[in-house]
Amino acid sequence: MYEAPHIVLPKINGIHNVDVYIANGGYSAYRKALAMSPDQVTDEVKKSGLRGRGGACFPTGLKWSFMPKGNEKPKYLAINGDESEPGSFKDRQIFEENPHQLIEGILIAGYAMGIKTAFIYIRGEYHKWVDCMQTALDEAYAKGFVGERMKQTFGGDYSMEILVHKGAGAYICGEETSLMSSLEGDRAYPRYKPPFPANKGLWGMPTTINNVETLATVPPILAMGASAYASIGAAGHSGTILYGVSGHVNKPGVYELVTGTLLSEIIYDVCGGVPGGKAVKAVIPGGSSMPPLRGDELDGVRMDEEYLKKIGTHIGTAGIMVMDEDTDIVAVTLRIARFYHHESCGQCTPCREGCGWMEKVLHRFAHSNATFSDIDLLYNVASNIEGNTICALGDAAAWPVKGFIEKFRGEFEARCRPDRSLISLNVVHGRRNTAETLVTTLT
Amino acid sequence: MSTTFSTDELQSIEALKAKYPDPKAAIMPVMWMAQKKWGWLSEDVMQEVARAMELPYVHVLGVASFYTMYFKKPMGRHHVQVCTNISCMLRGGEALYAHAKDRLGIGHNQKTDDSRFSLEEVECMGACGGAPMIAINETFHENASKEQMDALLDACT
User: Fold this and answer.
1) Which among A28, A29, A113, A215 is least buried, having the fewest CB atoms inside 10 angstroms?
2) Among B40, B66, B92, which residue terminates a domain?
3) What CATH number has the domain spanning A234-324?
4) B2 to chain A, minimum CA–CA distance in Å?
């Protein structure tokens, strides 16, 4: 059933249907897991080299091993399907095309960590895909693959309940601690870590939060074996990734390819190049919060976390946004800053205020009314947000702004007015400094 | 129209509350129910949600105001959402939004006088591969053009 690179989204018609899924070997990976001990399953995932697909690339097996072993307290699994990162549209493909593989992955994860309740959190805008997932879950319940009846279906003493929870439009809920606040029925404010969710998560109990794509990758790992999976793709970041390509390409869409695929290959071969044969000016490799790459830097760039880290960016959610030579970089930066200003939850001052300031300063550039010192001001504000907030939204807002200034400083300079004085806008205040102006003002 | 849940609805609310380890977690699905029934979350509706959830009104207000998809004022029967985030912007999303504003004569988060339409400039909806995209109520329309938008709006009654 699993042939690289089509592991998460196999090319099988109707695989979203439970019967087709079973006919193609579905739920056999879970049976295989049941024959192993929970710790062996976690070890297998560790050995596979699977890293989280939600953006942070944290090793999944390691995350699972943080969960306490005992069963004296309830433990929870939250599946992050909030997918709100601009440029990222891969999880909805899993909800629509292969939801049972996600359910099977949830069962395997639950068995490995001794979790009996899981919540699939899907963003509110995904009405259709919430329905797709709910339909698949109902099918799985009806077949006795989920819930109390699992014990008869698969044997053994393990069972799990899965619930679909629909969000209501807040980017911040994709942040794991914010997702927990949202799920608990509060305003979705992120929480400070530590304590980490594995110690104190949902309702104060040990909790693991995994991305949808991460868990959908778990059944193939069990089915083909950790070493076979680890041999796919790039060293240090193995497997396949659902790359979501958008912007100025001829064939935008979600493509499952191995990690370490050349970015130029994705843009030109897989996505058919840039419309009108134009040159590429910039590429954001992993969703709007990742630092961009310049068009002349793309040669030899490989799409895996280890490579991208070396050149100063990250794979993020693998949402590749391509911009052609005619793109207005200042307008793009402003749009990104506006997005983060809108989505900042307002809890930490540097992010709440700083994102607003970045947007305001960028407006000056957009109207060609900035001063040269505004470039430094903008960079300074971004640097003061980065690392100074509870959650990563602050970094996510700062990185693209800093990245665009670093890579395209000329575009920002071109929007500065050389004739605009650098002194304070308050004339009296600005002139007070010199005796000469004081004399002129008095006389 | 009285702002109270029916007995059946109260029963399904109790069932929802029982699904979570803490009943408070049912607040989001219950607000979705309320919005479906009354169209938007007025103060009376939120008071009713608070009663059904056995939570303080101020908590319901706090949660409702955190999320953009819970309407805090009446919206049109056809809620038109146009994305202008990066991927859509690169492929003409802003022109599409300007066209929607012109055609409907309303701006962001406003509704027409006859309550037929409301308009919202939305942030990324996760349809970047089909940019530019618009959504009318719960349905996505990808690779949208002005002509297609006109046809869709004409078909709304």
Assistant:
1) A28
2) B66
3) 3.10.20.600
4) 25
Range of the domain at B26: 7-66
- Residue B71 belongs to some domain of the structure: no
Note if the bond before A252 is cis, omega within 30 degrees: no
3-state class (DSSP) for residue A122: strand
What are A227's two structure tokens? 């070493």
Query: Residues A2-45: pLDDT tens digits?
Result: 777 999 999 999 999 999 999 999 999 999 999 999 999 999 99
Contacts B122 to A, Cβ<8 Å? 125
Distance CA A134, CA A272 (A): 35
Q: Cα dist. A360→A122, A151, A355, A368 in Å? A: 32, 59, 9, 13
Which of B31, B63, B131 is opposite residue A187, by nearest beta carbon?
B63
Q: Is residue B120 part of a domain?
A: yes
Question: pLDDT tens digits for B79-98?
Answer: 999 999 999 999 999 999 99
Nearest Cα neighbor of A332 from A311, A362, A370, A294 is A362
Number of CB pairs < 8 Å for A and B? 139
Query: Which chain B residue is nearest to residue A253, measuring alpha carbons?
Result: B129
Which residues share a beta bridge with A122?
A81, A166
Q: How far is CA B52 from the centre of its chain?
A: 22
ipTM: 0.97
Mean per-residue pLDDT, A190-219: 97
Q: What's at B88, amino acid-wise?
A: C
What length does chain A have?
A: 443
Do A124 and B67 make contact, defined as CB atoms within 8 angstroms? yes
Place A421 in a pLDDT band, splitting at 50, 70 and 90.
low
Integer Cα distance of A258 and A183 in angstroms = 33
DSSP codes joined into one string, A223-286: HH-HHHHHTSEETTEESEEEEEEEES-SS-EEEEEETT-BHHIIIIIIS---GGGPPEEEEESS
**Are residues B48 and B89 located together in one domain of the fold?**
no
The order of strands in the sheet holding A161-166 is A161-166, A117-122, A76-81, A207-211
Q: Are A45 and A221 in contact (CB under 8 A)?
A: yes
Q: pLDDT value at position A431?
A: 46
